[in-house]
Amino acid sequence: MPYKFTRERFGLYRRFWGEVSEEEFLESINLVQARPDFDEIRYSIIDLSDVDSIAITEWAFEWAGAMSFGAAKANPNISIALVTPSEVIAKLAPHFVSPYQLRIFTKLEDARRWIEERLS
């Protein structure tokens, strides 16, 4: 499992590293949505900065977006920051059609700054 969840005061930080499969990426989304505190989360930071390779397709982003519509019934107030230096992953992000606001960042600091603005 090349990822770790860290619960923060108002949200969730998810850091991936090494080689990440599409199944692992989608599994992490399912685990977030199944959390008992899911309705309290205001943001999710998905940090792919330390990923060596990730095998993910347009379909996976579409599927994740589709799943978010059901999750938004339990919690419609989540902002998602995706941190990735990969242009390939950034280009897949538009396939994530969701009620949640998603922004792409190349640096974690910029993602955290955006989250802070969203929380205030």
The shape, in one word, is: globular
Q: CATH homologous superfamily name?
A: STAS domain
**Rg value:** 13 Å
Which strand-content bin applies to the residues?
A: 25-35%
Mean pLDDT value = 94
Oligomer: single chain
- Summarize the helix and strand pattern as letters: EEHEHEHEH
Q: What structural class should be given to the helix and strand makeup?
A: alpha/beta
Can you summarize the main beta sheet? 5 strands, mixed
Q: Can you walk through the features of this model?
A:
The protein is built from 4 helices and 5 strands, in the order E-E-H-E-H-E-H-E-H. It is of the alpha/beta class and 120 residues long. The chain has a single domain (3-119), classed as STAS domain (Transcription Regulator spoIIAA). Strands 1-2-3-4-5 form a 5-stranded mixed sheet, with helices on both faces.
List keywords for this structure.
120 residues, alpha/beta, Transcription Regulator spoIIAA, five-stranded mixed sheet, 5 strands, 39% helix, 31% strand, STAS/SEC14 domain-containing protein, SpoIIAA-like
What would a concise description of this structure say?
Pfam families: SpoIIAA-like. This is STAS/SEC14 domain-containing protein. The protein is built from four helices and five strands; from the N terminus they run E-E-H-E-H-E-H-E-H.
Q: What does the secondary structure layout of this molecule look like, with pairings?
A:
Blueprint: E1 3-7, E2 11-20, H1 22-33, E3 43-54, H2 58-74, E4 79-83, H3 87-92, E5 101-105, H4 108-119
Parallel strand pairs: 2-3, 3-4, 4-5
Antiparallel strand pairs: 1-2
Protein name: STAS/SEC14 domain-containing protein
InterPro entries: SpoIIAA-like
